[in-house]
Specification:
- The complex is a heterodimer.
- By secondary structure, chain A is mainly alpha-helical.
- Chain A has 14 helices and no strands.
- Chain A has helices at 22-36, 47-74, 79-84, 96-102, 113-144, 150-160, 165-178, 185-192, 196-209, 212-220, 225-253, 257-262, 271-284, 291-321.
- In chain A, helix 5 packs parallel to helix 8 and helix 9 (196-209) packs across helix 11.
- The longest helix of chain A is centred in the middle third of the chain and has 32 residues, at 113-144.
- Helix content of chain B is 28%, strand content 29%.
- Chain B has helices spanning 43-51, 73-76, 93-103, 108-121, 137-149, 167-184, 195-201, 219-224, 229-234, 289-298, 312-319, 351-358, and strands at residues 4-12, 18-27, 32-36, 58-63, 66-67, 78-81, 155-159, 187-192, 204-209, 212-217, 241-248, 251-254, 257-260, 275-280, 285-287, 323-333, 338-343, 348-350, 365-369, 380-385, 391-393.
- In chain B, the strands form four sheets. Chain B has a six-stranded mixed beta sheet, sandwiched between helices. A five-stranded antiparallel beta sheet of chain B has the order 13-12-11-14-21.
- In chain B, helix 3 (93-103) packs across helix 4 (108-121).
- The chains are: A mainly alpha, B alpha+beta.
Amino acid sequence: MSAPTLAPQAQQPPAELRRETRRERRRRERLEERDATIPVELYGLKRGTISVLTACCVLFALFILAPVVWVIINSTKNQANIFQSFGFWFASPFEFFHTFANLFRDVDGDGTYSDWFLNTVLYSVVGGVGATVLAALGGYGFARFEFRGSKLFFGIIIAGLLVPITLVAVPLYLAYAKVHLINSIWGMIFPSMVTPIGIYLMRTYVELSIPRELTDAARIDGASELRIFFRIAVPLMVPGLMTVLLLSVAGTWNNYILPLIIFSNNTLFPVTVGMGLWSQHAGNSGDNNLYPLIVMGGLVTIVPMIALFALLQRYWRGGLLLGSVAN
Amino acid sequence: MSAISLEKLTKVFSTGVRALDGLDLDVSDGEFVVLVGPSGCGKTTALRMVAGLETITAGTVRFGGTVVNHVSPRQRDVAMVFQNYSLYPHLTVAENIGFALTNKKIPKAERDRRVLIAAATLGLSTLLNRKPAHLSGGQRQRVAMGRAIVREPSVFLMDEPLSNLDAKLRVQMRSEVLRVHREIGAATLYVTHDQVEAMTMGDRVAVLHDGVLQQYATPRDLYERPASLFVAGFIGSPEMNLYEASVSDGELVLGSQRLALGGAEAVLASHRGRKVIAGIRPEDLRLDTGARQAEHADGSPEHPDGPERPDGPERTGRAGAGALAADVRVVERLGSETHVFFSIDAPAAGGEAEAGLLAGHAHNGVARLDPRSAIHPGQRVTFRVDPGRMHFFDPDTTAAIR
């Protein structure tokens, strides 16, 4: 809804009324953040301690980033060079584009990577958005309404966090078979829409970021509960929702066990299961040149996740900080 | 018929806390009623029950004769201003003010017209496109008011709307709120813990203490005829001086001093020979200059703590009927008046008298004097008291003796 321009005399809005451009806001936020940061000298640590800690951080970063670097470098190599050349440097021939093109072909009869990739996108986006919507509704409900058994229900949801999927694999398969969710995309999407951690996060977020008086005020103003949720609560929940979206999309994106259990049809596989199949076949024979495809597939799989994190990072960080900073 | 009528309104929380106990209150059309009391006295709970935000344990809430106990806040059609304003942070001022109208599905043209009128009333016309974050405290308070008045409500509730403002703005907004109230003429229930706000704003004031209504009267009545010890101590600044005393032979015995009761004796007829609590407003103590000069002529020491100082009764005897001898401890010159904190040898029983002792000060009373009074700490003075202006309370029931 656009702001109604009610003030007729405000033809030329004064400087403080003008909307900041996106670029200006980014710049202001970056500078504000810099001002708010406490310089390392003021931490009260000895210079030597700071150096040691910095070295530890660098080592840890290397440990985390080395596999990524390895994947990027080896995505340019052929199968022989992946095994024989030095892992952290390039080797000719430069096979990057050739391998990339092969991702769209059915190389050894298992199916094409591009199909699996689209499946992964579908499951993750639909599942992630659904999970976010449900987490928003559930979290808000648990945060704002007391109803018979609300504490028990919430306890059950949290208990769900503790049950590993491997434990329920067999019963899940049997149940799915009964309701015809084996080899169905909904068999993958429905469970992905349920995130106990998302509901828990949203409940905490609502409790901390939406004062009760605000919903009370909306009630007094004659808004229905649904309208309060959509018009007042949801806009204020956006940073929290972005966090849940990111978590649930990434969770579905990386999910391996569930699709492994429910899919036997190769065209329904997500990337994780498809590449698992490649990996098996590559190990069995070894002459089908599947290793470059696996490396390339891994690279293509992580790029969207990195992009998503970079894009939503602002919300993600804001969401995590919210509980600790009042107002 | 009263616009708002509360009958035996009671709230017991599930923790067992009895926040409100049998509150009876009527607010007439267009009346401005202030609910005042110390924090935790149940005043906000009462207001939230009127608004429908709190369930009612017992009793009834009526709007214009209709019981609304089980009507949701949405349908009660009350407007409310919250203590922390509770503006919708993501909406502009115009959207904040117009939110209730949007909920009622009032057409946009009509809505805009009413928002503009409300904004003009409150001097917000140039701020309509701003978000609450870019407003000052006073402006936010106005927006909260605007959100309430735009609905043209018949019942207007305010929960300490001025308590987040700085002192100067609060005084300004007091008259602003009253002006707006006169313009819209809705029955208003206003909650505050500030007795000055209550006295200056209310047509009638209800004083609550521990969930129990102490007195419901005009500010003037509250001040001049407090119904209980609590009201006497709560209303007025500086507070009333309250002392344990007893009545004997037509005199009031205050510590070692005796005050002739004169006309007030009839009031205390029922308490002859018994203990009472005597209250004296700080402004009802007048400095007896004659007596003070006599002291000087005597050559008595200026400093009361001197060991050779003769003791009380002898002196009061000299000061005569209706006079109290006191030692000045602290003098506060406020410009327009002077507050003199003194000590007399009567035991304090609440109000300023007790507050002074509790705070560890050596004084147990305060007098409000002319700023030109030549008076300084350490002096021994005599105050003139008109017994007819004193207040008396029963120490057991704490009710006023009239």
